[in-house]
Structure formats: structure tokens, C-alpha cells
Specification:
Elements (H helix, E strand, L loop, with lengths): L6 H16 L9 E5 L3 H7 L2 H4 L2 H10 L9 E3 L5 H4 L26 E4 L3 E8 L5 E7 L21 E4 L2 E3 L2 E7 L6 E11 L4 E12 L45 E2 L13 H26 L11
Length: 307
Amino acid sequence: MTVRRTPAAIATLAVGVLVPLTLLPAPAQAHGAPSTPVSRAYACGAGTPQQKSSAACKAAIAAGADVAAWDNIRVADVNGRDRQVIPDGKLCSGGLGAYKGLDLARADWPSTMLTTGAAFTFQYAERIPHKGSFRVYVTKDGYSPSRALRWSDLETAPFATATDPVLQNKAYTIKGTLPKGKSGPHLIYTIWQNTSTADTYYSCSDVVFAAAGTTSRAGSPAAPAGNGNRSAAIASAAAGDVPGPGGPAPAGSVPRLTATSEIAMTPVLAGAGGAIVLALAGAAFFLVRRRRLRASTPSVSRTVISR
């Protein structure tokens, strides 16, 4: 028996297949990490070949650091309880076992040279935009990279904050002023608490502070700055070398940045499901069009003459 599919039946069939596919869980997506000053995860996962081949990055990967997903150091449902949820010594990994290699106490992480007290443009590379607030901390005087980072190593208050900052060239841009009076090796710790999801992201950026007037140009190695065991750092950037909107912050000010760029959230359909849906939709359209064409074509009668 031949079964004829009407246009309505074809549409119903397509919808019946489409709905279950759209309900399939989408693959896990990652989001972002600081690129300026370069974070450990970004340097080892998305940085230059020299950064990725550094001894520190090799050691981190060997110890356990999924830097291929450099933008995925996130913890759900923290809700501002960072110091209660993330254990001491595991701040750089966010307490996640997949990134524990980033907590290694080493003096040779790829670093960025900064000038104390100078204006600076922070950049947070992103793959999937989200709304949220950034809090940027620096380590206290006397910090040593020879031990894993603890909460007590950080200044109590962030020296820069931003809510929904401007997104430029696939990076959130935050203009601010670097802390005054810092010298030598330090660490900048960035917390990004999403408001569009339940996730909070954690990142460690190794830096070397130099006094004003001794700034090196972007791309030159950071100086050891009094730490004889620190190797020549990579991916250095002088304060003010990275341009950004709005001009420099007033000297000595603590930026409370409130850039309000709206970021559109785009739903993502699982790749395999999307391909099937498109194929079904195309087939349905073709069959309906063919039926309509046949219905609109006048029939031609033929007279058969017997001889």
C-alpha cells in the first residue's frame, strides 16, 4: 500500500523530530580568561609558542592542567563566597582537579611587566559572552611565588572592579590604574562572577612591577626585579602600551568601572541536532513545493484514435 504524505503530515513529522533534538543537552562551553596581563591558563593554552613551551607550562600540564580549555576555570553556585568555597593553595585552579597544575609554586611562569601606579588596560579574552562583574586583586607586599597562592596573600580589597565592561576584539576591556608602591614579582588575581549564569571564574596572572621611569616596551622580557631565581618572563607589556577607550584613569584613583555595554546572548544549538533539523526542514520544503507545482499544472487530455 502506498502512503501519501500531505504537507501537514510532513510538517508534523519535522516538528516531531525537531523538538527532541532541541531538548538535548548542549555540549559544555567555555568562556574566558585574562590575556593582558597574561594569565597562567591563557599563556599555556592560547599564548605564544614560547609561552606554551615554557618550563612552567610543561610542568603544569604534567601535573594536571587542561589548558586546551584555558577559558573554563569556573565554579558554579559560589555566589560571592569565594573565600569559603575555594581552598587556600588552590586559587589559581579554582579548586578544580582538572587545573591543579596551575597552582604550582614556581618563579618562572610567563609574566607581564607592569609599572607601579600607571594607567593600564586590562583585557579578558572571551569565547562566549556573559554579563557579570569583575574584581581584580593584587598580592600583598612580601608575596613570594615560591608558595602556592593563599587568600591571605591577597590585598583585602580589589584595586579594580567592572560590571559588564566593553567587549572589544573578543576581549572585555577594563581601564584602570595599577596599585602604587609595588615592586618585583607579584600576582594579579581576577574573579569574574557571572550574572547571566551561576558560574564564577578564577584566574592567576603573574606580573613583575617596576618603578616609574623604568618601563620596558611591550614584548620585551620582564626583568627579574630582585628575584634572582626568576627566569626571563614572557609576554611582557608595559603599562599604557595597550590602547583602550576612555583615556587613563586619574593617578592614584581606585577604578570603580561601570561600563554598560549590552551583550547579546545567542542560543547555541548542538551541531549534530542542528544539521539533522536543517536537512528535515529542507526535505519538507521540497516536498511541499513539488506538490503545489503539480496541483497548479493543468492536465492535458489525450484522445486515442483506433485505427
